[in-house]
Amino acid sequence: MEAVYLLCSATSTLARSLALSLGLLFRSLCSLILNRTQQQQQQQQQENDGISLYEGMVWHERRSPVRHAFKYSVRYALVDLDRAHSSFLANHLSAHEARRITSTTGPVFLLTIPASVGYEQNPLSVYYCYDVEGEDVQLKKCIAEVTNTPWGERVSFTFDPESDLVAKPLHVSPFMDMLGNWSMRANTPGTNISLVISVQHPKLGDYFTATLTAKKVSSRTSETEIFFWLMPHKVALWIYLQALNLWWKNVQFLRHPRYHNHDYREQAELRDRKLRCSWVDGHDENGLCKLNCQNFKSSSGINEDRWFVWRAAPWPWK
Question: What highest taxon heads this organism's lineage (predicted)?
Answer without folding.
Answer: Eukaryota
